[in-house]
Backbone:
């Protein structure tokens, strides 16, 4: 699989820990720094032995260089590399970046025993906690497995390597069925639960949210805010990115930007953990939490 600079999305480690507990019997754990050489060996042994049957020598060398010690080390440091153990031996690995499955390899001697499927099940379940779709860049050896798992081909890509050979791989996607459609904020009302001191909204401020497809906007007022507006977008996982502006009681126009992460409370209401920054004035940043009324 090819890992093309897919940026790491916001962490969701509380949910991941639940999966670790569920999968302990299947011996999947988060990679540590001491596992670097094992991950590198699994990756390079699999590429050298398996990929040589499908790709020209120049493409195999390209894969080996792409999955370098430095790249693997960086991913381990980011805590996105997972390992599968059998009888205390590491036999497989997968890297999960946002909603993308990367660097999924099982040692050649342990293939055709279901380890690849177990790693894919694990990765898909983690991704499904935050996203509707799972993405993967499929090498030729793995394409048939992904098709059987319900992945669809989105695009066939070709790259001319430095060695003169052409790498061909497929971008594939699968909808995660147990994830609902994009969260809908339309008609919901929120009130602040907490805010840092440099913020201007408080428990007297009322937010009215609206949404159409991935377009989000809101109106708010109350407390120190006379009138305010927000506009932005809703991601597949329900996260909000928006800009806001309001007029405060001092007749000052304040501008800012915000990123909000939703969390479903036990009563079914939505709580939004927000990180925001003023775009005028002192340009300071802050954090707040708003709760659905």
Residues:
């Amino acid at each position: 699989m090819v890992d093309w600079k897919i940026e790491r999305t916001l962490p969701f480690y509380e949910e991941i820990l639940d999966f670790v507990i569920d999968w302990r019997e299947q011996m999947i754990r988060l990679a540590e720094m001491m596992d670097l050489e094992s991950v590198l060996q699994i990756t390079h042994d699999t590429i050298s032995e398996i990929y040589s049957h499908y790709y020209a020598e120049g493409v195999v060398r390209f894969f080996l260089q792409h999955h370098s010690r430095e790249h693997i080390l960086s991913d381990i440091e980011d805590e996105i590399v997972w390992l599968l153990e059998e009888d205390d031996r590491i036999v497989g690995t997968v890297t999960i970046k946002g909603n993308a499955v990367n660097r999924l390899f099982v040692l050649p001697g342990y293939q055709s025993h279901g380890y690849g499927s177990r790693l894919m099940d694990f990765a898909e379940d983690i991704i499904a906690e935050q996203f509707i779709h799972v993405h993967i860049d499929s090498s030729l050896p793995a394409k048939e497995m992904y098709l059987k798992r319900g992945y669809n081909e989105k695009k066939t890509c070709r790259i001319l390597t430095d060695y003169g050979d052409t790498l061909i791989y497929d971008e594939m996607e699968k909808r995660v069925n147990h994830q609902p459609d994009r969260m809908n904020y339309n008609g919901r009302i929120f009130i602040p639960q907490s805010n840092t001191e440099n913020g201007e909204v408080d428990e007297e401020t009322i937010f009215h949210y609206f949404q159409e497809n991935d377009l989000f906007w809101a109106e708010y007022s109350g407390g120190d805010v006379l009138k305010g507006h927000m506009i932005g977008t809703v991601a597949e996982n329900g996260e909000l990115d928006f800009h806001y502006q309001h007029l405060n009681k001092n007749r000052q126009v304040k501008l800012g930007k915000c990123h909000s992460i939703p969390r479903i409370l036990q009563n079914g209401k939505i709580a939004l953990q927000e990180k925001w920054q003023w775009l005028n004035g002192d340009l300071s940043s802050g954090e707040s939490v708003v709760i659905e009324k």
Remarks:
- The longest strand covers residues 253-264.
